[in-house]
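4.2 Preliminary Data

To establish feasibility before requesting continued support, the project team ran the inverse folding procedure on a target of 342 residues. The structure was first converted into the token representation described in Section 3, and no sequence information of any kind was made available to the design step. The complete token record follows.
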């Protein structure tokens, strides 16, 4: 005698969701998870991917050195030693110099213009092309507010005051500072404070006031300079092993990209909201806030234009990305002049 499902049982069987494969991703960060925005936005990304996929992908955030050292994330993601990484493309100048232009650019655009180029002006496509040979799919996943120009033990009143200094500096800005007579080092966040304290460096740039406050630089340097000419906007990215990315269905890829788009909006708003309180607290702690003179900023910009020409001449990919970036900025400038108060 044949057995038939009742109508109720049949409906229940049809409504039951298909079993979903579950996997865990190790996401190695270059920033501590507790570090304002630079780390916390990575933790948020890991949590939100886990939530939006209903646990089908559980992303585990790992502190710097948790699986591999911070500055080895590039290779770790590409080889599949970890499924994902949290960083900024500017860290990989030694591997792919052109990636720096998709992280932060001296005398570059504010967030709205920068995102416009990345998302609608060709930057996204160039980003994918640069990463693909290294077996990485990377998605811009946060943008942070302008940085400060740096911390100094002594005031910087003239262009000549840079000569002979040793500084922690990042990215393309470091090449500019070297033209100003500064010896630069790229130090990880946790190494900057002791280097300043011991006098191994004379100054340092790291990030925005809320982040610099978190790291306590005011305890060892009292002169804090603006504007952050070298990083008016800084993009962070979620790096995913390309084989892992291509194994995902389109729906899951869409969910991950949606998390990153939401994280960009969240992080931009949060970063702008955090700064005024941080500046007030720094001043309460005895920090003197300075702005660079027009003379100094003009010298820095002239040095940047030299660096840009040199980098473009040395690397075809840098030249190609810089051409796209520059053309977009030139076209955008008319709208920038008309649409925004100066």
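Position-by-position output of the design step:
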């Amino acid at each position: 005698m044949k057995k038939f499902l009742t109508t109720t049982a049949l409906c229940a069987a049809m409504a039951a969701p298909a079993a979903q494969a579950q996997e865990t991703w190790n996401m190695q960060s270059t920033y501590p998870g507790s570090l304002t925005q630079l780390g916390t936005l990575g933790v948020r990304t890991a949590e939100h991917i886990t939530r939006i996929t209903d646990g089908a992908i559980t992303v585990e955030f790992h502190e710097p050195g948790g699986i591999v050292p911070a500055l080895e994330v590039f290779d770790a993601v590409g080889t599949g030693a970890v499924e994902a990484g949290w960083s900024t493309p500017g860290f990989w100048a030694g591997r792919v110099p052109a990636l720096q232009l998709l992280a932060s650019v001296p005398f570059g655009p504010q967030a709205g213009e920068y995102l416009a180029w990345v998302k609608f002006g060709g930057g996204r496509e160039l980003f994918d092309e640069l990463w693909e040979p290294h077996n990485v799919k990377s998605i811009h996943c946060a943008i942070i507010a302008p940085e400060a120009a740096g911390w100094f033990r002594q005031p910087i009143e003239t262009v000549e005051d840079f000569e002979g200094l040793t500084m922690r500096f990042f990215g393309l800005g470091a090449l500019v500072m070297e033209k100003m007579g500064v010896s630069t080092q790229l130090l990880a966040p946790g190494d900057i404070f002791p280097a300043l304290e011991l006098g191994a460096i004379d100054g340092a740039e790291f990030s925005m006031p809320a982040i610099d406050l978190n790291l306590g630089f005011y305890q060892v340097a009292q002169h804090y300079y603006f504007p952050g000419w070298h990083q008016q906007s800084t993009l962070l990215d979620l790096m995913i092993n390309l084989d892992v990315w291509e194994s995902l269905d389109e729906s899951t890829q869409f969910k991950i990209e949606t998390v990153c788009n939401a994280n960009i909006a969240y992080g931009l708003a949060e970063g702008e909201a955090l700064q005024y309180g941080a500046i007030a607290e720094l001043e309460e702690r005895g920090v003197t806030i300075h702005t660079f003179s027009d003379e100094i900023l003009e010298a820095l910009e002239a040095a940047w234009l030299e660096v840009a020409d040199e980098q473009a001449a040395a690397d075809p990919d840098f030249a190609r990305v810089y051409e796209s970036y520059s053309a977009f900025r030139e076209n955008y400038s008319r709208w920038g002049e008309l649409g925004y108060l100066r």
